């Protein structure tokens, strides 16, 4: 099992390392990394999410007990991260919200899917896909709403609501997911040529995003933020799966969905944690480093959760 974890996680580090090395050595400059980030964040990843949702078997994928267990735990971790950043580390509210988002958004796709598949087989991914279908909409809805509330405090409810809706519908990830649901629910068939073109784009999404993250880490190193980064990793890798375990047990969640929920919750902060921080220009160093350090630490913590789930 340890070798399997290494086989899954090491390629992620190699791609991040390639981006870091290329930027550190000057082959890529900040403007190049920014351009790659814009491509992956604003185009390739939304296409990936659109295809995933458009092709998902919705009728076979959803159990309310799984969604309640996972997202109740995620919401509590967001609150814990935000309040902890404010009270323990003295961050202003906008920084605290970005740090809370790091605790909220686990890496459900890049790590959660392959680790669950290796551990339990491809026939046990129903719960993973159900979580993924709502993951970005839920997390961005929570994060953007709370951020816009604090950014627009004192300007009245109408202006705040306008800012929240504007930020939501300008988010390419939300648009990609929403369009995927429209195609799925309407029973539309994506033309073969368009489908193939989208598949070509999506193949660049995750490696491009990881390479860009490596370049970003050249600029945002963990000096001075190590306590906040460790705090985020503890909530993401330990508290979130513990809460899902508690809620899932209380709701008598079936074993396959229970394992998917706990393992997905046990993943390190996802790349979208940095995307959110980058959107608002807040706590970017904490977000970028939490993704990297959390992914490294997950080699040990995921092994622990797999042992407990055996």
Q: What is the approximate shape? A: globular
Give the rounded overall mean pLDDT: 87
Count, helices: 14
Structural class: mainly alpha
* SSE pattern, N- to C-terminal: HHHHHHHHHHHHHH
What share of the residues does DSSP label as strand, in percent? under 5%
Q: What would you report as the Rg, rounded to the nearest angstrom?
A: 19 Å
| Count of distinct strands | 0
The main pleated sheet reads as: none
Q: Segments where pLDDT lies below 50 for 5+ residues?
A: none
Distance between the termini: 12 Å
Percentage of residues in helical conformation: over 70%
Oligomer: single chain
Walk me through what this model shows:
The model has no long low-confidence stretch (mean pLDDT 87). This protein starts with a helix and ends with a helix. The chain has 14 helices and no strands. The protein is globular. Helix 1 packs antiparallel against helix 5 (108-120), helix 1 (2-24) runs antiparallel to helix 14 (284-309) and helix 5 runs antiparallel to helix 6. The protein has 310 residues and is mainly α. It is 80% helix and 0% strand.
Which key features would you list for this structure?
310 residues; mainly alpha; globular
Summarize the structure.
With 310 residues, this protein is mainly α. The chain is built from 14 helices and no strands.
Describe the protein's topology.
Layout: H1 2-24, H2 30-54, H3 64-87, H4 93-104, H5 108-120, H6 126-151, H7 157-169, H8 172-186, H9 192-202, H10 205-219, H11 226-250, H12 255-265, H13 271-280, H14 284-309
């Amino acid at each position: 099992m340890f070798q399997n974890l290494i086989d899954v996680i090491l390629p992620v580090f190699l791609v991040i390392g390639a981006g870091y090395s290329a930027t550190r050595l000057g082959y890529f400059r900040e403007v190049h990394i920014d351009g790659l980030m814009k491509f992956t964040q604003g185009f390739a990843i939304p296409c990936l999410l659109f295809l995933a949702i458009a092709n998902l078997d919705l009728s076979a994928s959803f159990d309310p007990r799984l969604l309640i267990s996972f997202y109740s735990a995620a919401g509590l971790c967001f609150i814990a991260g935000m309040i902890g950043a404010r009270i323990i580390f003295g961050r202003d509210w906008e920084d605290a919200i970005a740090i809370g988002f790091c605790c909220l958004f686990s890496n459900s796709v890049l790590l959660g899917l392959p680790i669950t598949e290796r551990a339990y087989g491809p026939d046990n991914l129903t719960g993973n896909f159900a979580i993924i279908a709502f993951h970005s909409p839920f997390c961005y809805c929570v994060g953007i709403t709370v951020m816009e509330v604090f950014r627009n405090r004192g300007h009245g409810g109408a202006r705040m609501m306008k800012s929240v809706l504007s930020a939501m519908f300008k988010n390419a990830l939300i648009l990609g997911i929403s369009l995927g649901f429209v195609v799925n629910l309407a029973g539309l068939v994506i033309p073969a040529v368009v489908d193939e073109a989208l598949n070509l784009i999506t193949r660049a999404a995750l490696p491009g995003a990881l390479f860009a993250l490596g370049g970003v880490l050249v600029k945002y190193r963990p000096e001075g933020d190590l306590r906040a980064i460790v705090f985020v990793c503890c909530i993401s890798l330990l508290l979130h799966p513990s809460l899902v375990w508690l809620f899932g047990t209380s709701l008598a969640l079936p074993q396959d969905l229970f394992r998917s929920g706990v393992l997905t919750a046990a993943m390190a902060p996802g790349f979208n944690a940095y995307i959110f921080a980058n959107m608002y220009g807040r706590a970017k160093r904490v977000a970028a480093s939490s993704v990297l350090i959390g992914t490294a630490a997950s080699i040990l913590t995921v092994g622990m959760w797999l042992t407990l789930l055996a």
